[in-house]
Design a protein that fits this description.
Elements: H1 7-25, H2 35-39, H3 51-65, H4 83-86, E1 98-100, E2 111-115, H5 126-130, E3 136-139, E4 142-145, H6 155-159, E5 165-169, H7 171-175, E6 181-183, E7 189-191, H8 201-205, E8 211-213, H9 217-224, E9 230-234, H10 250-257, E10 261-264, H11 265-283, E11 291-292, H12 297-306, H13 320-331, E12 336-341, H14 345-350, E13 361-364, H15 365-375, H16 394-397, H17 404-416, E14 423-428, H18 430-441, E15 448-453, H19 469-481, H20 497-512
Parallel strand pairs: 9-10, 9-12, 11-15, 12-13, 14-15
Antiparallel strand pairs: 1-8, 2-5, 3-4, 6-7
Helix pairs in contact: 1-3, 1-9, 1-15, 11-13, 11-17, 12-18
């Protein structure tokens, strides 16, 4: 749970910090073997039944944080296997991005409804009356559920006046809007990668921290130590993510990590807004019944996988991340760009062949927090930035919250054509996004602009965030108020948008030849 400091948070932070420290300090890669003992010291277990199991799990998490693949539980090999090959300043994520450490999985039941000892054996027993399958009977004065008859509808749970009936579901499966998680032959969670869109909601929902994504912390730091300048492209959801780091010190904080400078992804959001506004006015309803936004990669991949017949209605606009990367590399030829944001799915987006030349690495806020810890960056001791981040609109920064993208596009349309009426519908969480697209396919949203966000609450609730989503949304609102202008149409970069689009078209053509 974002914003809750727990043993799970502590271990994740230790792993990111140690990998970052390992990269910054350099030296013999064989030292990697000792890291599980540093993170899990002593002889007595703290979190699980065995200290050896704890270290084995930490070892696999360290491998994934290095961008390596999991080792099979029946494979006799040191955890540093492959680390030497990974100690480079350039590495594309190898699928799968989201992984389950099988021996860390608790084998939670997929779904069950049961009567707790809170049952009072009441006279009315409404649970038996509402059950559509007659699965509930009274045994020794208490309610009893026949598992073979039960269809897990939850009606008995709702009817019980004592809240004595409990409906349980595997947390990772409950969080997965794609229904991509099931049980393997041993009852452990397993991911159907044909359905998975790497939103990371399972990752943040697993209480046992058995689900982990790969990282590029090590490779990013190696790039920072090279002679090539590296720029941090920071997503709008950064507001309030790092405790004690005000917006006026963000630039100097990232420079302390070795970055050349910081650029706002909200600048790319402004360009994306203008592009989508123009597309909507040109395409809807004359050429297509509705248009859906494109900036959330998990949402757009879900739409294309699940509703291929309406996939063409997803905006073709380049995402804010890509536009920012392209703009930065145009201004600073030969540089590298690291997208730093809240999203696990952005890692998958950046690995596409058509995008690799624009974005070199993707890190989450949580991973960057490990870098700050490894470098022992004292936010309080930093001088305020000489040049604060102030090149994006309030609407561009508003991309971080649910509803913000659609609002920005509508505002841009009204700037371009004040008479144009735009109806919008938005959904957050892939379950709700699926419902939105079903209704759109049925013709319920003809003429609409649709916005989908895979994470409930928007990017401020992404899998790689640190702060409580509600607090992050409040900080984002403060950030919007400090923007130098209101709408994307006022961006000084709008004039070069066609040039950036042409670069994309040329690159895509080369890749398709």
């Amino acid at each position: 749970m974002r914003g809750l400091y727990s043993s799970k948070t502590k271990i994740r932070q230790q792993i990111f910090t140690e990998v970052a420290r390992f990269a910054y300090e350099g030296g013999d890669y064989s030292k990697f073997e000792s890291l599980p003992y540093k993170i899990i010291p002593g002889e007595i277990s703290t979190y699980r039944e065995s200290v050896f199991l704890e270290r084995a799990i930490v070892g696999e998490r360290l491998r994934l944080a290095m961008g390596l693949n999991l080792l099979s539980a029946d494979e006799q090999a040191p955890i540093s296997t492959g680390v030497e090959e990974s100690m480079i300043d350039e590495k594309v994520y190898e699928p799968p991005l989201i992984n389950i450490i099988k021996f860390a999985c608790h084998s939670c039941p997929e779904k069950r409804v049961f009567v707790s000892n809170g049952c009072q054996g009441c006279l009315e027993h409404p649970c038996t009356e509402v059950c559509p399958k007659g699965a509930i009977s009274i045994v020794h004065g208490k309610s009893f559920i026949d598992e073979e008859k039960c269809i897990k509808c939850g009606k008995c749970q709702s009817a019980c006046p004592y809240n004595a009936i409990i409906k349980q579901e595997r947390p990772c499966a409950a969080a997965c809007g794609m229904k991509a998680i099931h049980s393997d032959e041993y009852g452990r969670a397993d991911i159907d990668y044909n359905k998975c869109v790497s939103c990371g909601m399972c990752l943040v929902s697993c209480p046992f921290s058995a689900i982990v994504d790969k990282s590029q912390i090590f490779q990013t730091i190696k790039a920072l130590q090279s002679d090539t300048p590296v720029y941090a492209a920071v997503a709008p959801a950064v507001a309030g993510q790092f405790a004690g780091l005000p917006a006026t010190k963000i630039r100097n904080a990232f420079k302390a990590l070795g970055f050349e400078d910081v650029v706002e992804v909200a600048v790319g959001a402004d360009l994306c807004t203008v592009e989508e506004a123009k597309d909507f006015m040109e395409e809807v309803p004359e050429k297509q019944p509705f248009m859906a936004t494109s900036c959330c990669p998990a949402w757009s991949v879900m739409a294309k996988k699940t509703f291929p017949d309406i996939a063409s209605y997803i905006s073709m606009a380049l995402t804010p991340m890509v536009l920012t990367g392209r703009l930065t590399k145009q201004d600073h030829p030969g540089c590298r760009v690291v997208f730093i944001g809240p999203c696990a799915a952005k890692k998958l987006e950046a690995s596409r062949r058509s995008i690799r030349s624009d974005i070199d690495f993707v890190l989450t806020f949580e991973e960057v927090a490990g870098m700050f810890a490894a470098k022992e960056v004292d936010f309080a001791a930093l001088e305020p930035d000489e040049e604060p981040l102030s090149f994006s609109s309030a609407d561009g920064r508003g991309f971080a919250v649910s509803g913000g993208v659609a609002k920005a596009v509508v505002n841009a349309i009204h700037r371009m054509n004040p008479e144009r009426e735009v109806k919008i519908a938005n959904a957050q969480g892939l379950d709700e996004c699926m419902k939105l697209l079903r209704l759109a396919k049925a013709g319920k949203y003809n003429g609409y602009l649709l916005e989908g966000m895979a994470c409930p609450g928007g990017c401020v609730a992404g899998a790689g965030t640190i702060n409580v989503p509600e607090k992050s949304a409040a900080e984002n609102l403060k950030s919007k108020k400090s923007s130098p202008f209101e709408t994307a149409c006022e961006s000084p970069y709008v004039d070069i948008l066609p040039e950036l689009e042409n670069l994309y078209n040329e690159f895509s053509h080369k890749n398709n030849e």
